[in-house]
Amino acid sequence: MFINLLFCRYILIGVIWTELLMILKKIPLLIILCITASILTILFYLFSFNFFTTPPKTSKELLEEHLQTDNISSQESIDENGLVSAILPPKLSYFQFLLSFSANFKNDENIMNTEIALSTFKGEFYMARIKHHEPALRRVILDTIAETSEEDARTKEGKERLAKKLLHEINSKLESLSEDPAIEGVHFTAFAIR
Predict the structure, then answer these.
(1) Beta 183-193 vs 101-104: how paired, if at all?
(2) Helix 156-176 and helix 134-146: axis angle, to 10°?
(3) pLDDT tens across 35-79, in order?
(4) If 0-12 CB within 10 Å is exposed, 13-18 middle and 19+ buried, where does residue 183 land?
(5) Is the Cβ–Cβ distance between 180 and 159 less than 8 Å?
(6) CB 133 within 8 A of CB 177
(7) Where are the alpha helices (DSSP H) in 53-81?
(8) Are 119 and 128 in contact, with CB atoms under 8 Å apart?
(9) Is the pLDDT of residue 81 over 70?
(10) Measured between alpha carbons, how far is 109 from 164 in angstroms, rounded to an integer?
(11) Predicted pLDDT of residue 134
């Protein structure tokens, strides 16, 4: 009986062992299938990503596309409305400096505080270029205000002379920065002397 039990145990262990071996034989096959599927998924992702996506445009390509779009839209506006759109004047745009200007007058203790806007017939691209050069333009404006006497700034004619001088100095500075000097006017949107 003891031998029978021992024999049954060995048979049971043998059956379990053979089942385990069958499962273990299937495991390498499953591992190989999983690795193969992973590699195929990665390769599919890489090739489809490169195939279906376009590379980002360079700044030069973006600029050329923007200029081409502007040229096409101006051509379309002339074609759509005929002579009327060609005769209409271009739109005047304004660039408002965000911060006010405060500077001492020439040979005086009083301070002039003003807000300034620039006008131009150029579009948004030019305004972005003006924004880029704002620190240099602020310096020119502050230096020009510092050269002005208080008597000139208190009269209407003096303010007009100051605006013309600022216009000349700003366009000169833009030219020295290799930009188109296309500012048409300097406008004081706020003006105070303290």
Answers:
(1) unpaired
(2) 140
(3) 777 787 777 777 666 656 666 677 777 777 777 776 555 544 444
(4) buried
(5) no
(6) yes
(7) 59-81
(8) no
(9) no
(10) 24
(11) 92
Residues 6+ positions from 136 with CB-CB distance below 8 Å: 173, 177
> Please, are residues 183 and 170 in contact by the beta-carbon 8 Å criterion?
yes
Cβ burial 158-175 (10 Å sphere, 16+ → b, else e): ebeebeebbbebbbebbe
Which tokens hold the place of 54?
A: 């376009």
Q: Which residues face 119 on adjacent strands?
A: 94, 185
Token digits of residue 112: 């002039």
The identity of residue 194, as a single letter, is R
Cα–Cα distance, 130 to 140 (Å, whole number):
13
pTM of the model: 0.55
> Which residue is it, tokens 């051509």?
75
Q: What is the three-class DSSP state of 111?
A: strand
- For 49, the token pair is 């990503």
Q: Right CATH number for 93-193 from 3.20.20.105, 3.30.1490.20, 3.40.50.300, 3.30.479.30?
A: 3.30.479.30
CA neighbor of 163 nearest in space, from 118, 98, 133, 123: 118
